[in-house]
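Suppose a colleague, Dr. K., hands you the sequence of a protein chain of 202 amino acids and asks what its three-dimensional shape might be. Before reaching for any lab equipment, you can write down a predicted structure in token form. Begin with the sequence itself:
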Amino acid sequence: MSTPKVISRDRGDDAAEGILVGGQIRDLRKAKGLTIAELADRIDRSIGFVSQIERNLSELSIPDLKRIAEALEVQISWFFHSSAAVPADERGHIVRRENRRRLSLSGIGVVEELLSPSLGGATELVLTRIPPRTTTGEEFVTRKAEESGLVLQGQMELLVGARHFLLAEGDSFCIQPEESHRIHNPGAIETIVVWIITPPVY
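The predicted structure, expressed as tokens, is then:
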């Protein structure tokens, strides 16, 4: 059986989704702070291979896309964001609710949705849904980015270093770069938070 392919080269309307795959890989790689060489090393491929894929000049097999997703710490479904229904004049500017890219944190039920049109800008807008009495992880997270947010629904327990805060609907917050933190939903309903992250981390 032949290996399934994700068409990255521009071949007309039938490949509309594939046209975006290379750009998504490039933007996500840069957001993760990786060079082409580092990504190539992680997936055991050549620098030229990664460069060709990112510029939409080569076909990409599903197994290779899976390895790239693992190297960039996202689910492979991250790359299957359909753009077919997005009007050309909205691309890069508008994200309709049904077209958000979603990232599910396996095993804990937390879902993050990218609200920004791309990862190529200076900031990133993300919506996080946290199930009742769920934490985003037991370990503290430290990022090289400023993270601000607004609680739209429910409660959010925010731990920043040794400090502990309990936020409710309508409360906002800011976490400075390099500050260790983690979040938890202590309530009985889903917590919904909108984040502004500078620079992008996803």
